[in-house]
Amino acid sequence: MQCVLDASATLSWLLADERDEAALAMLHAVSTRGALVPVLWRAELQNALVTAERKNRLAPDQSAAMLDDLACLPIEFDPRPPPLDFVTEVALARRFELSAYDATYLELAFRRGAPLLTRDAALASAASALGLLWSPGE
């Protein structure tokens, strides 16, 4: 079964100063099981890499190589975005005190019944409460 992948999990294996055993376990899960992401993931990831470049954490050629590596992973964009009524994401954001961005990942995991890979503490807590938090060994 595919996992739902958020930008914080992705960045945790891309950025050397954030890479640890948990990050590598998430990368392994994505490599072997595949991942599903909302369209938002792309913009969040690109913004984080550009920000890391501006803070001299990465050189532009390193960012480019990371994006090339990501393109080789079995990551798919959600083919069916939620309806435009916005109800589910807003309700999840309110219930768990999440940003609307993070609620988008949680909604996708909930809708697909898929485990969520995240390094964000608030999002992990929400996913755990719904029985959707990925754990190593899954």
Overall mean confidence score, pLDDT: 93
Indicate the low-confidence ranges by residue numbers.
none
H/E topology pattern: EHHEHHEHHEH
Provide the spatial order of strands within the biggest beta sheet. 3-2-1-4
Shape, please?
globular
- Terminus-to-terminus distance: 10 Å
Strand content: 5-15%
Essential attributes:
alpha/beta, 58% helix, four-stranded parallel β-sheet, globular, 138 residues
Structure notes:
There is one protein chain. The chain has a four-stranded parallel β-sheet with strand order 3-2-1-4. The chain is built from seven helices and four strands; from the N terminus they run βααβααβααβα. The mean pLDDT is 93. By secondary structure, it is of the alpha/beta class. The chain has helices spanning 7-14, 21-33, 40-54, 60-71, 87-96, 100-112, 121-129, and strands at residues 3-5, 35-37, 75-77, 116-117.
Question: Topology, pairings included?
Answer:
Elements lengths: L2 E3 L1 H8 L6 H13 L1 E3 L2 H15 L5 H12 L3 E3 L9 H10 L3 H13 L3 E2 L3 H9 L9
Parallel strand pairs: 1-2, 1-4, 2-3
Helix pairs in contact: 1-2, 1-3, 5-6
Please give a quick description of this structure.
This protein has helices spanning 7-14, 21-33, 40-54, 60-71, 87-96, 100-112, 121-129, and strands at 3-5, 35-37, 75-77, 116-117.
